[in-house]
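Hello Y.,

Per our agreement to keep a running log of every chain we model this quarter, I'm adding this entry. I've kept the format consistent with earlier entries: sequence first, then predicted structure.
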Amino acid sequence: MQGVDKYIKLIYATAILFLTIHICRMFTETGLIGWYEFSYKPAMTPVNEVFPIVWTIMYILIGASFFIAIKNLPLEEVHKYNNEFLLQMVLQCLWCYTFFAKGQLLWGLIVVIALVLTAFRMIRVYNEAGRWSGNLLYPYLFWLLYATILNLNFVIELGSSVAIQ
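Predicted structure for the entry above:
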């Protein structure tokens, strides 16, 4: 029966990741074809084609970290890791919504800072499940720190928000 639990956990983690990816892509595309395409971008901004590749890698690492943390736990003990995982996914969607879909750059900065802080906490919590589980999240944390710098540059150059057509 424990083998079945592992498959259920893997399917659950994958479903949450795919849902998050879909929602984030929808919000991001709104901004990419709107305000973002023609606005100022910091010199350190990668070309648009880099983002889906990097985010795919980040989501795989987050999902693997979550699955490693919970795979051998009884279902009733999964909640601590699940809460951290879900919080990251909700904040990811919220950042894409505020920054890209709504052009609210200052709110986007606030959300990405929240993502960084909760990623630090997530690493600490996931390290309790094992070093691999926590260590897989470091690239995600570094990417979030980079995103924070980019977001801050947008705020400095464009102000707290951009006009959405």
